[in-house]
Design brief:
The chain has 121 residues and is of the alpha+beta class. It contains 3 helices and 7 strands; from the N terminus they run ααββαβββββ. The chain has a single domain, classed as Roll (Nuclear Transport Factor 2, Chain: A). Strands 1, 2, 3, 4, 5, 6 and 7 form a 7-stranded mixed β-sheet that branches. The termini are far apart.
Length: 121
């Protein structure tokens, strides 16, 4: 079960824009993420590579946690707002729920739930 301090440290890394550092520090080597119902991304190295791709496609990415993270045993739920600005200066915003499973102080699984139509607005 993650401590409140660990969950807050993870959230702080995201809010500071250190998305790669958050993955490297807090995810297990075999961590898995799921985007809605898409096929999973498996393994920390693949998670880092995917994140690098997202960051390379944007001139800026910001993350803001909306309210506190809820912790129950090994499960953590957080509501987030991400803004992605492209090279043309157009910003798209996405709100999501991140549903996480932790093993101690390491993240082993994360599922992102959001409406993809938000990015088309």
């Amino acid at each position: 079960m993650p401590s409140r301090e660990i969950v807050e440290a993870f959230a702080r890394r995201l809010e500071e824009g250190d998305f790669i550092g958050a993955i490297e520090q807090f995810c297990t080597q075999d961590a898995v993420t799921y985007e809605n119902n898409a096929a999973p991304t498996v393994g920390r190295d693949n998670l880092v590579a995917k994140e690098r791709g997202v960051l390379a496609a944007s001139s800026a990415v910001t993350a803001v946690r909306l309210g506190p993270s809820l912790i129950e045993g090994d499960t953590v739920a957080s509501r987030w707002r991400f803004s992605f600005t492209n090279a043309d200066g157009v910003t798209r915003t996405l709100e999501e729920i991140a549903w996480q499973t932790w093993r101690g102080d390491k993240l082993i699984e994360e599922r992102f739930f959001y409406d993809p139509k938000q990015l088309g607005r």
